[in-house]
Write a structure and sequence with these properties.
This protein is an alpha+beta fold. Helices cover about 40% and strands about 15% of the residues. Helix 18 packs antiparallel against helix 20. The two termini are about 50 Å apart.
Amino acid sequence: MKTREIVGELPEGALAWQREGPWTAGRLAQGRSLAEVLADPSRAAEWAESAPPFARDTLALIVKRFGPAPFPEEKLATEGGRPPFGWTGAELRLAVQLLRRDGIVFAMDRPWGDRLLLVPSDMCAAWRRLLLPLRARPLPEEAWMDGCDAAAAPLSHELIAAWSAIRRTGLPLTAKGAPRKQDAAKLASAMRLAPEDIPPLAMPPAWEALPASAVLALRLGSALGMLKRRGRAISAEPNEAAKAWLALPASEAELRLLEQAAHCLLSAAAPESGAWLAAESLRDLAPMRWYSAAEIAKALPTKEAAGAAEAWVRFLRAAGWMETGSGAEGAALRWIIEPNPERLWVSADGYDRYELMPDLEAIVPPEVPPGARWELELLARRLSEDVVAVYRLDADACRRAFAGGTSLEQARFALERGSGAPLPGAVDIALRDWFHAAPAHSAGQSAPLTEAAAQLSGAPQQEAHAKQPEAGDDERHNERYDGRHMESQDDPHSEAPADDIFGCAEAAERTGAPEQARAWDARPPMLSRKLYPGAEGVPPGWLRQPAAYHASTRKEIIERAIGWRSGLRLCKDGAWMDFAPERVVPAERGGWRVWGRPFVREAGSGKPVLAENPIALEAAEIGQIMISLPDSEFGVDCRPIT
């Protein structure tokens, strides 16, 4: 779930203390909404710079282990007091409360008792870039690559062709809610993605026998808002979010499609697989620069991510977003598109228009936005798809468009807008021939405007009767497919629900619980020693100053520290040490011993550096002792100098 979705579901009690937090109150005073503040990348950067080290490391651990997937709080607790994380379980528990207070981590209680934590999906990617950047150096620019794969056409081109086929004929569904196999196979034939190039997709059982590329086309079409389920059929009816995507420049549209593909393909992957972490980390690489695949594998945050990266690169290559090769350094890869929104740069070199030739062919450079391609697919036949695509205005396509309600003026308007120039004379003559008056309508009446015609004309259906601009208007030549007539408040990059296509709510997939079962925790974060059960009932000296105690009391102190997963400050053979206890066991000759790990704290951060292997301390070896609970402000234990 994204930040805006979570904020929209939070109870008022949770919203109240969120608004008063130290990282939100000042920004809200500037007139911004809570969702805007919590999703602000600049706020995230400031927090990462000045937050307590134990809270920052805990967030990095969450992002590394779980990504945006919800996870049980108990899974996180087991990391405390163990290398390489280092921080004790008590410090980790306090860190979670600070992350909740600052609107970074959210908690939900499920009816059957489980408690889940999650980081919003939009901010999880931002936190990964801040806390776990991929540090890989590009190869020298003069590096030569052999066996470089021929770059495939970007995935958006194939998807628009597949969705256009659905726009022409619709896609009927069986009684089980799935497309017929022959229809799905025809849809898959419009795409060059091989089944082995596509990561496993989560889908209903009735869809499992269908080609993976067809399912992906339908899934992405639903996620972007291009496709809609109507009863027993799927139709291509772009909603407001889809129209906004069609209006984007090609580079940004491809980036948004990459983000949706990652969501659709990786949301079902187990967090432990490292698939999300690998996909996000690879986006740190600069476009059009070669990188050593071996160096990237070493630089990825986990071994699991390094293993998952290979499959994701295979998909990216098939989607036309990345290419691979081999050089003196071995296997290498590079992005063909800009994968990072923070570096997005829109070309202004003029190639975002296609060239309409007198022979009725349209030469379409890769920089042409998807909206122009979507319009061409209605009026023309695609002859070839390479780096540059070639379309040809087609009599059958134009007559189908005319029969569907598209007028001559609407067709002219779309072609002049896409090419940025007046129509060649031969093109205008052909259009006049193909878009002749319909005999079923009397003079002065226009054919009813269908959804396809409304998409082409750039006018809402209720404005079908409005007069289109005359051919040759200067304004028309400067207007892109921008959907500016739409007064939508939709977020064009939002994760549109997939229930239109699959007939099942995607909310359960995103949060691990059906929407009606989500109960967000409204309790304020606990930033006092009440966070540790029973802390108010123990003798104050146990938490304040090391002292000598009877063996039974020392054992009780140690067991209490184990329950809180906190550290101990103790004296052994006259030397002071910090110790993270793990378990108390009987000794061979009676009595007891405690197993755990000694640690020292780094200067400055206070982070514990634990011994790699646990050791055992006999009861008689332990002298003065105290429990070290973290300070709520700094996260490191406040103990006297000993």
